[in-house]
Design a protein that fits this description.
This protein has 129 residues and is of the alpha+beta class. The chain contains four helices and four strands, in the order αααββββα. Strands 1, 2, 3 and 4 form a four-stranded antiparallel β-sheet that branches.
Length: 129
């Protein structure tokens, strides 16, 4: 018999069915399904509230942004996007600066490291522009 793969939705439904049968204690049932008890109780609560629809994976994005912006330039975000190597083998750390309100990318600048000495001039130029 070939292996049968179960989707996450099927696994959650099987968890619910096994719980309803009462064959296992909650800690054992969660261990068998490789989840924490907290996660097990989360799926039980969602199933109780919404039935099978409650078992669908939900977005992890926050429902509200704690820093509400009302206009461009209210808030800028900055982030290093990891590390890459250039064709000549030099490490490059891409720095991005974006406007939170418009989600526009204001700058992308490759730096040799993540230290402040190289970052400051990029911000100064962005502020001047």
């Amino acid at each position: 018999m070939p292996w049968q793969e179960m989707s996450p939705m099927d696994q959650r439904m099987q968890f619910i069915v096994d719980h309803q049968r009462g064959w296992y204690a909650m800690s054992e049932l969660c261990a068998r399904n490789r989840m924490s008890r907290k996660t097990g109780y989360k799926w039980l609560a969602r199933y109780a509230a919404d039935g099978a629809r409650g078992l669908v994976e939900r977005s992890h994005a926050p429902h509200v942004c704690p820093l509400h912006t009302t206009a461009p330039n209210d808030l800028w975000t900055a982030d290093f996007k990891g590390q890459c190597r250039t064709r000549n083998g030099v490490s490059c750390y891409p720095l991005t600066i974006a406007d939170q309100h418009t989600r526009s990318l204001l700058r992308v600048h490759g730096l040799l490291n993540t230290r402040g000495a190289g970052v400051r001039p990029v911000f100064e130029r962005a502020f001047r522009d």
